[in-house]
Amino acid sequence: MTGALFHGAKAVLYRGARLMVMRRDDIPTIPWPGRIDLPGGAREGGESPEICCAREVLEETGLAIDTARFSWRRFHPDPFGASGSWLFAAEIAEAEEAAMQLGDEGQALWMMEVDAYLAATDAIPKQQERVRVFWTGR
Questions:
Q1: What is d(CA 48, CA 3) in angstroms, rounded to the nearest whole number?
Q2: Cα 8–5–124 angle (5° rounding)?
Q3: pLDDT at 1
Q4: Is 76 exposed, middle or buried (CB count within 10 Å of its CB: 0-12, 13-18, 19+)?
Q5: How far apart are CA 120 and CA 80, in angstroms?
């Protein structure tokens, strides 16, 4: 994909006008404890952005998403560093929605109306803005 350094990747997994979200663990030592977030996380080793995202989705939701299904992607450089993160999007099927299950991170996993997510005061603001860009431009 790109040679740009990155530290992690997130996924917008959507069906209709809903997207998959999770409530982060409520541990004070992690970024954004207890907030609504998207599936995804940190890069391991020399993973590509797509593989990182697919692995994190599998770990956090139980869904095996083929990287070829990512219909949208965007790199977000860190404002104060030489790295950044990726956001990918893929539409999921009804059976995948029914099969999703919370992995070993987070407190809850569910489908949420996009408008409700974008208005949620307990979601991570930078992720909301990234989803807004994707959703309005798709």
A1: 9
A2: 35
A3: 42
A4: middle
A5: 27
Q: Give residue 34's region: left, alpha or beta (phi > 0; psi -120 to 50).
A: left
Judged by phi (left if over 0) then psi (alpha if -120 to 50, else beta), residue 45 lies in: left
Domains of the chain as residue ranges with CATH: 8-137 (3.90.79.10)
For residue 121, give the amino acid letter: T
Give the residue carrying structure tokens 């998959």: 20
pLDDT tens digit string along 9-67?
Answer: 999 999 999 999 999 999 999 999 999 999 999 999 999 999 999 999 999 999 999 99
How far apart CA 16 and CA 137 sit, in angstroms, is 15
pTM: 0.93
Note the pLDDT of residue 4: 64
Task: With CA atoms as reference, report the closest residue to 63 among 87, 98, 35, 88.
Answer: 98
